Amino acid sequence: MQNFSIPQTISSTQKQIFAFGLLAVVVFFSCLLGIFTRPLSYFSFFWPSNALLLGLLIRFPSLKSFGGILGAFFGYMGADLVTDNTFLMTLGLTLSNFVAVFSGLFFFNFARAKLPASNNNVSELYPHIIAVTLGCFFGALFAILLLPNLPHTFMLKENRWIDFFTWWSGEILNAVIVLPLILAAPGWSKFKKLINNQYAKETQIQDILPFFALLISIACTHIFYGPGALLYPLAALIWAAASYQLFNLALINSLVCLTLYHSVTGLFIDQVNSSYLTTIISIRVGLIILGLATLILCVISQNRNQLYREVLYLANHDSLTETLNRRSFTQLSEKALKHKNNHSLSLIMLDIDDFKKMNDQYGHYVGDRALQHLSNIVKSNLRDHDLFCRIGGEEFIILLNNNNLNKTQRIAERIRMCIEHQALNLENLEPIHFTVSMGVSHTHLPTNLPLQDLIIQADQALYQAKMQGRNRVILAS
């Protein structure tokens, strides 16, 4: 989860003003949303402002300034005052919210500093879970110690502990709904890239099935509502967690939690008493577990998919040059020979000239860097669907689809000249120049020639290039 900051090109005063204005507006309107969703002027159904503020301060550390804090304070105070709350009660609620947010931020930084670094992305959730749990705890504790002593309070001293658990569970649920949206949201450049990829990618029916399953389960919570409705979307959420990226899953998770919360609490909203509060706490805890478990499952699924992609990549590529290995190249080339859209196929074999002398003169480290240098040059001159493989040692092979022989020869000559003229630059060494010899074979498709015969033809042409003085391209006869 990436951190961002305010651009450094603006002055310190402008940063303070920006932080003040942004947090004042965000907190003010998010508080109004919470105030307008209070059932019967009691605890808010949904109070996003604390989780939203905590998420912004975690993701945008530059907002944690005097101007930002002052803006958040005015946002909290302004929202309550314009909705006819008393000044003392507004101040008490604002201080309670501040305790929740900034104690949560403190425990987040503390946990992130103390917990050992890990490659497991699930461990990245631990500081956030600790921050939300303890921040909401201290915010609720501060509220029940302060608010019952204020005039015109809605908290009674004899009910303070049930109010504590109501406040605490509500704040944690708000965080489960809001915080992942803030922390997992892609940056603007990544967002544009995702949109472009989505337009380029053809939508498959299996991509939207989990979402439709969730819509059906959400509809069922309104039709067959009751305490058991908490379990209606469970299977669909598991399906979505295994199918979607974290931000998309966070959006779905928030929608499901809010819908379930509204459906189930609607059964008890006319019973504002201790029984109602106990029921609401139970519902909130169930939703917290459901939402958090779904998010953790999504992270685990993404870890598994990433590990699978890494293992598959390592199994199919040479570890030094990141080109295809022989086995993978053979499989993909056999498919290319049989593909109905391919009309011709060209193979280019290339070999670094006098590579053994380079290793003897400079050492194997320089030899490895030369192989990497060559592979980078070749890749920059190929199309995305062309195949490039390190057969072994200093020998490579390229497969080009649907190029005529003249075009293939021009590509080979361009690669040869680029390698000849782009020196390998290493620290503490003079620029190292080297050359390659290349052999080309070509056939029209379909063909009865097996792949191995085409490789033999290119290899024989490469041998002729070596015999004729190296640093040249020879076409197979």
Provide the fold topology:
Elements: H1 12-36, H2 49-59, H3 66-81, H4 87-114, H5 125-146, H6 160-184, H7 188-200, H8 205-223, H9 234-243, H10 246-265, H11 274-316, H12 326-338, E1 344-352, H13 355-362, H14 364-380, E2 387-392, E3 395-401, H15 405-421, E4 436-444, H16 451-467, E5 473-475
Parallel strand pairs: 4-5
Antiparallel strand pairs: 1-3, 1-4, 2-3
Helix pairs in contact: 1-2, 1-3, 2-4, 2-6, 3-4, 4-5, 5-6, 6-10, 6-11, 8-9, 8-10, 9-11, 10-11, 13-14
Largest sheet: 5 strands, mixed
In terms of per-residue confidence, which ranges show pLDDT below 50 for 5 or more consecutive residues?
Answer: 1-6
Q: What percent strand?
A: 5-15%
Tally of discrete structural domains: 2
Shape: elongated
Q: Please write the string of helix (H) and strand (E) elements.
A: HHHHHHHHHHHHEHHEEHEHE
**How many helix segments?**
16
Helix content: 55-70%
Average pLDDT over all residues = 87
Spatial separation of the terminal alpha carbons: 57 Å
The SS-based structural class is alpha+beta
Strand order of the largest sheet: 2-3-1-4-5
Output the radius of gyration.
32 Å
Catalytic activity: 2 GTP = 3',3'-c-di-GMP + 2 diphosphate
Main location: membrane
Protein name: diguanylate cyclase
EC number: 2.7.7.65
